[in-house]
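Sorry to interrupt, but I need a hand with the structure work. Can you supply me with one protein entry, sequence and fold together? No commentary is needed, just the two lines. Leave the record below and I will have a look.
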Amino acid sequence: MTNTTYDLDNPTITTLLNRRSIRAFADETIPADVVDVLETVAQHAASSQYLNDWSAIRVTDPAVKAKLAEIGHQPYIAQAPLLYVFVLDEHRNAEIAAAKGVDVDSEAFTLNGSYRYSQAQNDAVLALHAMETAAYSLGLGCVILGSLLNDVQGLIDLLKLPKYTYPVLGLAIGRPAQDPALKPRLPKSVQIFENAYPADSGTLLNDIADFDAAVHQYYDLRNTDRPVDAFSDQIAKNAVAPMGSKTVEPIAKAQGFRLDR
């Protein structure tokens, strides 16, 4: 049997291991050919059952960018040279199905069910990650914008998202104008398991104390005068944080999805 030799220090691995969120960008326009490649790479991401049930909105209007920055409470969103909002999208497929004679208002229509909703969301994330990785490989920097979900209904209204769509994440891209440190990652012992999820909490918690210490030594460039809270403290805080407008079901229902089936 021939043993294959793997180059574990190749550019792709290096790019992924050095991934950092970039929140300050140089005032440089991204060339059109680069934009085209990034968008094409996103289209080549895996898609559940080849439904291609995601879309991305490239935001270029300064007024819309400013509103997105307001929704996200992050001024740098408006300054991003390249800005996208990725959307799970069954609207296009519903239109295609209707053109083929399918009654999309009947109980037989299933593209609006919970399974399709979750799979379309997965597809949107996979496409975004492909674009993000490609951007990093070109020397660009990115930040994923979950903050745009602070006001989902406002985002839907702003981007004129139709029935059977729902915003997933934003992505800001540009030439980095900062050099943040790599953020610590969880020990593999508490995140990567073999064959089954561990039954005892000890396995999950044994190595958290050291990780807490490592995280507490990390300084985020957004607040350089103090270390980041320990990971456990961040989890405890978020465990009781109010969700408010981030609650999915009511707005998803208004967008035509049936998450109860």
Notes: The chain has two domains: 11-181+249-254, 188-239. The two ends are 50 Å apart (CA to CA). The chain has a mean pLDDT of 93.
